[in-house]
Design goal:
The protein has 26 helices and no strands. With 529 residues, it is an all-alpha fold. It has a single domain, classed as MFS general substrate transporter like domains (Growth Hormone, Chain: A, Up-down Bundle). The termini are far apart.
């Protein structure tokens, strides 16, 4: 109760949000498509986004293989708790490795855990695809999850810390939307291999899970390291060179580069002066950090406990309950729904700086609540009364739910987490989000098959539970989610901490003037020489 009281007292006030937005620097606008440095940087950004696609691949992979008779026969038709355990092993593997990631990312850089995770995931995919028994398949899934945490936590951190401030919000939001790319690839791959009618129907998608990690591993050594990490390790020249090379085509004296460099340097200096090292207990020491802690937990829970896990892992069961008996039809419906989610999530991700985070969260969660109400009603009519057409209405609302979920929760889960965290707590904060996500998914994957068995013939009662829960989510989002549009990554701490924020107080106009004076002095010396 003390923690909840603390965050209710510390909920950021609208004045702090407005002030932070007004003080945000107005950087010179750049077009990445016409800028060689940014074009190269955003090629690397695509490589970093493969980590999200890897996670999406697994989410849809396990849903897809359940449609294959060859997979069902090979593993003797797993059901209930056994099926739930198979699904949950990926998350169990992730839960084991998650606590290791912040230590590696903060001490050895953001790239090291990405490379390590990719190697482990490739090994897991090979073991899964070449398995000869249930034990090997289970081991492959656990190994995939174990490796995923390293790449999944470090990749978005590195992405956010490399991006030009003009593009950071959109790119970090797009990052998690690419979960749907991985899901879409395996959905259509499974749709195609279904026609093989043998074990390769599911072994090909299982082996294909290694491809995103192989691509990321191939290019990660050319991706630049985080300037923020380098500055934290007193490697200032390297950090400045990276900012200059990619944000201003090698011009280290560009005003934007100088502002970024000075702000990052001074902010990290203040954070380190306040406390030489960070710990997880820091989340309980100040009102602002208590607020961050609760919001991070809510992001992890809401992103997985909104009914979306049913769609990603058990659409085969959902469509069977709706009367769709053809495996090809079920695979096609899953692929189509995933494609819609990808389009919607990326479209909204590109508009986060226009509409802001809070309105998108509210529209998404409100739409999910409305959809679940009608989903529950149509399921009840079909299951209890066999009302004509109600099964097709249920399919429509399954798709509509995915549409609204993709509005916010596909993309903003990671980008919003990054935005509310200061540098010294960023790795640990993302670990908390991922820990909650994986714990929620583990419970989902183990409990949902048992819930379907328990409510067999009356699954509308299960959907009613989700409906009530989403109402609570909407209430929490309305009360506690603050707007983060506008300020730089460093200045966003002002939104939550207000006057207590440990951030450099810089003025872009002053930096520009200092750079101009420096150039004039150099020209004068050159003429004299």
């Amino acid at each position: 109760m003390g923690l909840l009281k603390g965050i209710s007292q510390k909920k950021p006030k609208s004045e702090a949000v407005v002030q932070a937005q007004e003080e945000a620097p107005d950087f010179e606008k750049v077009n990445w498509a016409k800028d060689p440095g940014l074009r190269k940087l955003y090629f690397f950004a695509v490589i970093l986004c493969f980590a999200s696609a890897t996670t999406g691949y697994d989410g849809m992979f396990f849903n897809s293989v359940q449609n294959f008779n060859s997979w069902q026969e090979f593993f003797n038709h797993p059901k209930g708790g056994e099926l739930g355990l198979l699904a949950a092993l990926y998350q169990i593997g992730s839960l084991i490795s998650i606590p290791m990631v912040p230590y590696i990312a903060d001490n050895y850089g953001r790239k090291a855990p990405i490379a390590l995770g990719c190697v482990i995931m490739v090994a897991g995919a090979v073991l899964q695809g070449a398995c000869q028994n249930m034990g090997m398949f289970m081991g492959g899934r656990a190994l995939l999850g174990f490796g995923n945490s390293f790449a999944q936590i470090a990749s978005p951190m590195l992405l956010a810390e490399l991006c030009h401030p003009q593009h950071r919000a959109r790119l970090t939001t797009v990052y998690n939307c690419l979960w749907n790319v991985g899901a879409l690839v395996v959905a259509w791959l499974s749709f195609g291999t279904d026609f093989l009618g043998n074990e390769w129907s599911w072994r090909i998608p299982a082996l294909g899970q290694a491809i995103p990690s192989l691509i990321q591993l191939l290019f990660i050594f050319w991706v630049p390291e985080s300037p923020r990490y380098l500055i934290a390790k007193d490697r200032h020249d390297e950090a400045l060179n990276i900012l200059g090379r990619f944000h201003a085509n090698g011009n280290n004296d560009h005003p934007t580069v100088q502002f970024e460099f000075r702000e990052i340097r001074e902010t990290i200096k203040r954070e380190m002066a306040a406390k030489n090292s960070s710990s997880y207990l820091d989340f309980l020491r100040t009102p602002g950090n208590k607020y961050r802690f609760i919001v991070l937990i809510s992001l992890g829970l809401f992103s997985q406990w909104s009914g979306n896990a049913i769609i990603s892992n058990y659409t085969s069961t959902l469509y069977l309950n709706a009367g769709i008996e053809s495996s090809t039809a079920r695979l096609g419906l899953s692929a189509g729904q995933t494609g819609l989610s990808l389009i919607v999530s990326v479209t909204l991700a590109m508009q986060v700086d226009k509409f802001g985070r809070r309105p998108i969260f509210l529209a998404s969660t409100g739409g999910m609540l409305m959809t679940f109400v009608f989903w529950t009603l149509s399921a009840g009519l079909y299951e209890e009364h066999g009302s004509p057409g109600s099964n097709y209405a249920m399919i429509f609302f399954i798709w509509l739910f995915g549409f609204f979920y993709a509005f916010a929760w596909s993309g903003l889960l990671i980008s919003y987490s990054i935005e509310i965290l200061p540098y010294k707590l960023r790795a640990k904060g993302l670990m908390i989000v991922n820990l909650v996500v994986q714990a929620a998914l583990t419970l989902n994957n183990y409990a949902n098959p048992n819930a379907f068995d328990h409510f067999e013939g009356h699954t509308w009662k299960l959907y009613l539970i989700y409906t009530c829960w989403i109402f609570l989510e909407l209430t929490f989002v309305y009360l506690f989610y603050v707007e983060t549009k506008g300020p730089t990554l460093e200045e966003l701490v002002k939104v939550i901490d207000g006057p207590d924020a440990e951030v450099a107080d810089l003025d872009l106009a002053q930096v520009e003037q200092e750079v101009k004076i420096g150039h004039e002095a150099e020209e004068f010396e050159h003429k004299r020489g």
